[in-house]
TrEMBL record, chain A:
Positions of the Aldehyde oxidase/xanthine dehydrogenase a/b hammerhead domain: 23-138
Coiled-coil segments on the chain, per record: none
Gene3D superfamilies (alphabetical): Aldehyde oxidase/xanthine dehydrogenase, a/b hammerhead (3.90.1170.50), Aldehyde oxidase/xanthine dehydrogenase, molybdopterin binding domain (3.30.365.10)
Source lineage: Bacteria, Pseudomonadati, Pseudomonadota, Alphaproteobacteria, Hyphomicrobiales
GO MF entries: iron ion binding; oxidoreductase activity
Full protein name: Aldehyde oxidase
Organism: Xaviernesmea oryzae
InterPro entries with a match to the protein in the record: Ald_Oxase/Xan_DH_a/b, Ald_Oxase/Xan_DH_a/b_sf, Ald_Oxase/xanthine_DH-like, AldOxase/xan_DH_MoCoBD1, AldOxase/xan_DH_MoCoBD2, AldOxase/xan_DH_Mopterin-bd_sf
Automatic annotation (TrEMBL), chain B:
Keyword terms, alphabetized: FAD, Flavoprotein, Iron, Metal-binding, Oxidoreductase
Record has Transcription regulation as a keyword: no
Domain spans labelled FAD-binding PCMH-type: 196-369
Biological source species: Xaviernesmea oryzae
Record-given protein name: Xanthine dehydrogenase small subunit
Length: 754, 490
């Protein structure tokens, strides 16, 4: 654990990359250029299922002499044949989509041709002139008509636990329960819509080495993908993602703009840039639509006696995309009779992808809505129902928990919200024309650790460099790694330079799943420990050293000295140690990763309690969220500023999920109708009012070596349910279909003059 | 008429720009990012929704130099003649010292992934220039047109509040530093000559209204572009060929705002922002409606004349204007004519505008002291959204409490913005009571058979329209039901 009273860790330090961002100098993937480079533009399919009969690019070629190449399935350069070469480290099982592989159209917006020209305008305008003739087949894009064709994915996706086996006698227990509720829940597709468009710039080096600036959450994942697909050796491919304009999971898998830019660059031996349009972002990936059924049984006191949770989730024709949706229902509360089932159904659509808290955000909407419903059935406060069913154990895995300060979240969150003033009866609170509703929900996410390495270099003058292939997708990785090194080496954080976002740096997995701070942070801490050990070794070469008999645990770095922790007067200057050894700097690598032995008996989760106030203008169906309190237990907080922002952003994405976000598909054509930011509504500024983020104290020495659990996902977990529950409390209407739009709220309410 | 020239001139940050080969529909964003390599200005949507491309455009308004935030992605370079374009690269001092709005964004953690940040910075800078001590409402409004997917907005608001509270007296400010020079240069650029660029005059910037009439007479198929908040999307999203393009945003004669006891006359080129102070004073409900049209960037560019001429069934202002009894003046080389606005909208996609004609002005009658006027915009997302429906109500009662005059107009309920004539007829002459309102509600179905689309179902539209009538009735009875924002905790 990190210990230092002169705290760098835990300090609300502003982001060290912020000055570059507020001046517009941080360069994103599309913002690297060289003279005379080529630009790409894709032609997207206008059908959701069928075959390409003909692609006519004659007019485009005649009009634009600056065209360098037009690629279609008929002339695409060779790429890898085996599925496994196309499967990146986050890919689900199946046949990975390969751009321009053949004449099949598998989903709306699939790129069917790629134009490379001397300018962006020429490429774009030429692409617009290319006409494609299709043989159209009837697409199936409506989940609700495909529920019967459900199947359990035969091959599990790496890292995604399938539901545990049933325990107890769930069906019988449900039948015999004192209180019973059961409901079906529907969620529509949601899209990540990071502000930055997906883009790749490939700079073709004189030696044939590619410098690839890509919008990705993992430079090394992309590097391996490029090497595998194009049969290149790693030393020919350097991937850079120094600044990433948001991703939320959409940048985990390599996207087609990468393939196209690299393919064209290799084929033409030129530098190529390809940035996709906002509308094309909607075809890349999405949080999948799913149909869930939750049944809860409880005894007379509201203690759960049966939990049944079933889900049918959308996937593509070609991959079995999986997330953890139902498992949460087996571990959130104490219950001995549990049946959890999870199935997929195939649609004519692109493969879904991980979007902030994949699985949990969706599954908890159903579970936590059902818990709310049960509380009214039992006749107790929804928060009290959750307290009565509290469990400090993972019944799915039969494991202890590393920590669970959820009761503190309930207590402190409720106090900050003023929950005790809530009137239990729905429709009982109002002001002016608006009904007021208060709802709450529990959030859970897994606290994970991934293998990560980091290199730290400390100079005799106290300057420190931290290096890792980690990414910062807006989360604050640059800043917290600087803080961790600064604390361990006792230098001002300003003296630490962090170099990340490059594939030739120490190995790190993709940034996702909330594991980067814990994993890369622990690796940096380990590298700093190794530096301390090196310094101690150097000191102990001197027999007269006061540190002669000390172990590495007994020494600390303070003010440029290596000192005894118990007697800070005994020490030696680091500059002197280095000078004696003839070094100007020392450099060490650190490693972190899951502890297999510990994982046998412990599971680790972050928790939250979310409280929401809505005001509903019932005659017009308008709902607005006026207050949110999110109380979070996530272990150690490295930087309250970046931490708070993670939760704020998560909560707001949850509000979008609850009230706004869905792709609207015309099921006759299988096409997305609202593929723009005007009609796909991410929360705008006016949708956000008072959000209070509170971190409860939680000590955890097992979740990760530095006590961190991660914060990227927990903010969104439970929010949609809390909003739906608040709307029920306000209106008496239980809406189980997200998003909760104006017409769902209005239902049949006809206004009457008072 | 002054002789034609063929060069678009403007100032970009601290440099003068002269373009004689600019495309008719080249956007400012592409010009900045591709031609100038000024990549601080970002593309997030290319349709004026997200604000990542916000830059300031300074223009002469009379003798004043006015800077306004605009969306560079839907602003055409051809419309920039005699303006000063300021991008995020121009904001920090030469020694790298951050401007206070930038520093506050750093200090209050208003930037995460950073991609939307330059746009927010420029919106905050626009606010900095226009208001010394902006309050919360000013800040809210200034940030309305910027989307962020990371921060949850609140840190950005706090940054803005911090700047407002602790505004330093003296600070390096790039625009203040060059104000005099800019004024002189812009005046010199504004010669009143018509500019035509490209073969066959594909891009025309008329120097006078007479020149505009002349150009349209010889090119009746030309696309008239005022604010480009809709036309911009025809180009960036639909790849439509719209040349020849005639830019009218620089015509002072179309920027007039005239108030008389009879009402208000707005030139066709008056932006929402420019019309706002007067309209919100004379017709408060109209002001609140304008607050919900796009964000500042859109309100600074978009014009009420354009909103009308465009003819969209879901344009924000026509229902209010129709209910208020506005008349439209069209002009061509042959002369002018006026007509009630409600007659201008013939059917979906068709308006009563003859070849060679352009909207010159709009007259809005003054409200009678006893008149009730309300307009309600209903959208799925409160801000930055298109109306699912929009209803405007204008009522006068006689001494007996009977309905003397009533005009009701809806957008989003038919193929055009449309008056609810049957509904009105069912209520006029009757006592203004619940029973009368019920008669009106029953008649709504005769006026409107709305569609179901992604914004709302037909059932929703019918219900909400009926409920709006109820709401209007209750308001006239003194029950306040304006949505309030930001009251404290319950």
């Amino acid at each position: 654990m990190l210990t230092n009273e002169r705290r760098q860790v835990g300090r609300a330090m502003p982001r060290i990359d912020a000055p570059l961002k507020v001046t517009g100098r941080a360069a994103y993937a599309a913002e690297h250029s060289e003279p005379d480079m080529l630009h790409g533009a894709a032609v997207s399919a206008t059908i959701a299922r069928g075959r390409i009969l003909e692609i006519d690019s004659r007019a485009a070629k005649a009009a634009f002499p600056g065209i360098a190449a037009i690629y279609t399935h008929e002339n695409r350069p060779n790429a890898a044949w085996l599925d496994r070469s196309w499967q990146d480290e986050t890919a689900p099982p199946g046949h990975t989509y390969r751009p321009l592989q053949n004449d099949r159209v598998l989903f709306d917006g699939q790129p069917v041709a790629f134009v490379v020209a001397d300018s962006f305008e020429n490429a774009r305008d030429a692409a617009a002139m290319i006409t494609v003739r299709y043989e159209v087949e009837t697409p199936e894009t409506d989940l609700t008509t495909k529920l019967a064709e459900r199947y359990v994915p035969p091959k599990k996706r790496s890292g995604i636990s399938p539901p545990p086996d049933p325990r107890g006698q769930p069906e019988e227990a449900f039948k015999e329960a004192h209180f019973r509720i059961s409901g079906d829940y529907l969620i529509e597709n949601e899209h990540h819509n990071p502000m930055e468009l997906f883009a790749t710039t490939v700079l073709y080096g004189a030696d044939g080495v590619l410098a690839i600036h890509d919008k990705t959450q993992g430079s090394q994942n992309v590097q391996k993908f490029v090497c595998n697909v194009f049969s290149l050796s790693q030393d020919k491919v350097n991937v850079i993602n120094a600044y990433v304009g948001g991703a939320f999971g959409s940048g985990l898998r390599p996207r087609h703009q990468l393939f196209f830019a690299v393919m064209a660059s290799l084929d033409l031996k030129r530098s190529v840039k390809f940035e996709i349009a906002r509308s094309d972002m909607f075809y890349l990936s999405y949080r999948p639509a799913m149909y869930q059924t939750v049944s809860l049984g409880a005894d007379a006191q509201g203690r759960l006696t049966a939990v049944l949770h079933d889900t049918v989730q959308v996937t593509s024709r070609y991959e079995d995309y999986q997330e953890v949706v139902v498992n949460w229902s087996g571990l959130a509360y104490r219950c001995d009779n549990v049946a959890l089932t999870y199935a997929l159904t195939k649609l004519d659509a692109a493969t879904p992808g991980d979007m902030r808290a994949p699985g949990a955000a969706s599954g908890l909407f159903a579970l936590e809505s059902a818990m709310d419903e049960l509380s009214y059935e039992v006749g107790i406060d929804p928060l009290e129902l959750r307290r009565r069913n509290f469990v400090h154990f993972d019944q799915n895995e039969n494991k202890q928990l590393t920590s669970k300060a959820l009761r503190a979240c309930y207590r402190e969150g409720a106090a900050r919200f003023g929950w005790e003033r809530r009137q239990a009866k729905p429709r009982s609170m109002h002001e002016g024309h608006e009904l007021i509703g208060w709802g709450m929900a529990t959030g859970i996410w897994e606290a994970q650790l991934q293998s990560a390495k980091a290199r730290v270099r400390m100079s005799a003058n106290g300057q420190v460099i931290v290096q890792a292939a980690a990414s910062d997708i807006g989360t604050g990785t640059y800043t917290i790694l600087a803080q961790i090194a600064a604390e361990a080496l006792d230098v001002p954080a300003e003296d630490v330079s962090v170099q990340i976002g490059q594939s030739d740096l120490p190995e790190t997995s993709v940034e996702g799943g909330s594991w980067t701070a814990a994993s890369s942070g622990s690796a940096v801490d380990a590298a700093c420990l190794a530096i301390r050990q090196r310094l101690l070794d150097m000191a102990q070469k001197d027999d007269a050293s006061p540190l002669k008999d000390a172990t590495v645990e007994e020494v600390v770095i303070r003010d440029g000295h290596l000192r005894l922790d118990t007697d800070p007067r005994a020490g030696v200057a680091i500059s002197e140690l280095m000078a004696r050894a003839g070094e100007t700097a020392i450099e060490e690598e650190g490693k972190a990763g899951p502890d297999a032995k510990q994982m046998k008996s412990f599971a680790s989760y972050t928790h939250s309690a979310v409280f929401v106030e809505v005001r509903v203008d019932e005659e017009l169906g308008l709902a607005r969220v006026t207050r949110v309190v999110s109380a979070v237990a996530a272990g150690r907080i490295l930087n309250p500023k970046t931490a708070r922002s993670q939760i704020l952003g998560g909560v707001v994405m949850g509000l979008g999920m609850a009230l706004h976000e869905e792709s609207m598909i015309d099921h006759r054509s299988g096409r997305i109708m609202n593929h723009n930011l005007a009609e796909y509504h991410v929360p705008a500024h006016a949708d956000i009012q008072d959000i209070d983020v509170h971190f409860v104290q939680e000590f955890d020495d097992k979740a990760s070596p530095i006590g961190v659990k991660g914060l990227g996902e927990i903010g969104v977990c439970g929010v949609a349910a809390a909003v739906a529950n608040a709307i029920f409390h306000a209106t008496g209407k239980r809406i189980r279909h997200l998003p909760i739009t104006i017409d769902k709220i209005l239902g049949e309410t006809v206004g009457k003059a008072a | 008429m002054t002789s034609d020239t063929g060069t678009i001139r403007f100032i970009l940050n601290d440099r003068s720009v002269a373009l004689d080969d600019v495309g008719a529909t080249t956007t400012l964003l592409d010009h900045l990012r591709l031609a100038r390599r000024l990549t601080g200005t970002k593309e997030g949507c290319a349709e004026g929704d997200c604000g990542a491309c916000t830059v300031l455009v300074g223009r002469l308004a009379g003798d004043e130099l006015v800077y306004e935030g605009v969306n560079a992605c839907i602003r055409f370079v051809g419309s920039l003649h005699a303006t000063h374009v300021v991008t995020v690269e121009h904001l920090a001092a030469k020694d790298g010292a951050l401007h206070p709005v930038q520093q506050a964004m750093v200090d209050y953690h208003g930037s995460q992934c950073g991609f939307c940040t330059p746009g927010f910075v420029m919106s905050l800078y626009g606010l900095w220039l226009s208001k010394d001590r902006p309050g919360r409402a000013d800040i809210e409004k200034a940030l309305q047109g910027n989307l962020c997917r990371c921060t949850g907005y609140e840190p950005i608001v706090r940054a803005a509040e911090a700047v407002a509270e602790a505004r330093p007296d003296a600070v390096f400010d790039p625009i203040l530093a060059m104000r005099a020079r800019v004024k002189t240069e812009l005046k010199a650029m504004k010669t009143g000559a018509t500019i035509a660029v490209g073969e066959g005059r594909r891009l025309v910037v008329p120097g006078t209204v007479e020149a505009l009439a002349e150009v349209l007479d010889s090119h009746p198929q030309a696309t008239i572009v005022a604010g480009s908040t809709d036309v911009g999307l025809w180009v960036t999203k639909q790849m439509r060929e719209i040349a020849p393009v005639v830019f009218i945003n620089g015509l002072d004669a179309l920027q007039t705002i005239e108030e008389t006891p009879e009402g208000v006359t707005l030139g066709a080129g008056v932006s929402y922002s420019a019309a706002y102070p007067l309209l919100s004073r004379l017709y408060p409900a109209f002001g609140r409606l304008i607050d919900r049209i796009g964000g500042d960037q859109v309100r600074n560019m978009g014009t009420i004349g354009g909103n009308v001429a465009n003819g969209s069934p879901i344009g924000d202002t026509p229902p209010a204007l129709i209910a208020l009894g506005a008349t439209l003046t069209l002009r061509s080389k042959k002369g002018s004519r006026s007509l009630p606005l409600q007659n201008f909208f013939i059917q979906y996609g068709r308006q009563d505008r003859q070849p060679g004609e352009f909207v010159e002005s709009l007259f809005i009658p003054a409200l009678a002291p006893d008149a009730h006027f309300s307009v309600y915009k209903i959208s799925k997302r409160r801000d930055e959204d298109i109306s699912a429906l929009c209803g405007a109500f204008h009522l006068r009662l006689d001494a007996d409490g009977k309905v003397k005059t009533l005009s009701i107009a809806f957008g989003g309920m038919a193929g055009t913005p449309k008056r609810a004539s049957q509904t009105e007829a069912a209520m006029i002459g009757r006592l203004w009571t619940e029973e009368t309102v019920a008669l009106g509600q029953a008649a709504l179905a005769k006026d409107f058979q709305p569609l179901t689309d992604w914004r709302a179902s037909a059932a929703y539209r019918n219900l909400a329209a009926a409920n709006l009538l109820t709401r209007f009735y209750l308001e006239t009875r003194g029950e306040g039901c304006e949505l309030t924002r930001f009251e404290g905790a319950a």
